[in-house]
Amino acid sequence: MPSPLADRVRPKRIDEVCGQKHLLGEGKVLRKIIDSGNIPNLIFYGPSGVGKTTVANIIAAKCGKKLYHLNATTATTADIKAIIDSLDTIEAVGGVMLYLDEIQYFNKKQQQILLQYIENGDITLIASTTENPYFYVYNAILSRSSVFEFKTVAPEEVVPAIMRAKAILEEENDVKIELGQEVALKIARAGAGDVRRCLNILDLCYITHSGKKEIVLDDAAAEEILKNNAVRYDREGDEHYDIISAYQKSMRGSDPDAAIYYLGRLLAAGDLQSACRRLLVCANEDVGLAYPQIIPIVKAAVDTALQVGLPEARIPLANAVILTAISPKSVTGHDAIAAAMADIESGLIGDIPRHLQNKHFDGEDAAVKGQHYLYPHIFPNHYVDQQYLPDRLKERKYYNYGDNAFEQKFCDYWKKIKEKNNN
Hints:
There is one protein chain. Helices cover about 50% and strands about 10% of the residues. The chain is built from 19 helices and 7 strands. It has a 5-stranded parallel sheet, sandwiched between helices. Strands 6-7 form a two-stranded parallel ribbon. It is globular, with a radius of gyration of 28 Å.
């Protein structure tokens, strides 16, 4: 049985990789590392199907090390130990490179087993993850690795891979395939930045027309495949931004029915990342301090969705989207940090008041000796009036209590405390 088309088309040279010019273009850091042949431990993160595995394979072939490939979703501690046991064999005389896919699924102990071997250079680690490694990868491994972010691939950059795949299908099957640039671009857009998905769509288009010596993959043929596979969705086009905009605005506008509909549009297209990201943003930006408990609730729902994947992910996300839509709303946190950042970006940056600084000795030129910080917990109600903002900003007010029940409760509390303090 032949391997998937995406594997048969997989580039053998860096110049053939779709997209990632910010990493692999001439003069870019990762390109320089690869060209040098002196490969450090690397962590690649980004969406599926954007070239992480391909680049790792190219690096392994170039540096001449024995390559092992593990997927952390299925690999065990025994698999790690088997690689470690191979270090003293003739197979590993040039060194070992381990490509570890989905490293976020390795627990801390499993990551720690690798640590001493990647630290002393016995194993060169290239790990990939679809999650932010700063949240999911053990700090000791992070500190010994260089992290590079892979991005979704623009449709125009996917077209050459589609045309290369067409040529391979023609050569393998002794057929002539007519595929124009416009249809190739339509397929590329439908893949929503995932090159593997685009090639799978092309393969399906070919399979449905196989048996002929001349195949025409025109707009109608592509449209039929795209319609039946619910991938008519361009992550780089207007439709994508319209849907996610409507999704977030429906939650902000407290319309659970519309919010659920647009969630369904995103999930039908397989765009789990956008659905999760916008939900997290909305819980913090639009609900915020009106119901702050929603933030860990939504985070737990998103974590569950990403762990179980589609189609099951739709259930925790539906619950969280409805909760976000029907919750009270407040943008006081958003407005406060926006106002503070505006001052900072305009140059309103003053010296930290002396009593708040992290130093306990004064120079001879200090007009007032001593820190004179007032520790709030030794005062009634754990509060004492003292200046916290720099002098030039001391009259600034960034946060204003919202009119919702939660914030008003705290507003009343602090009003009473400060009145007592002033009497």
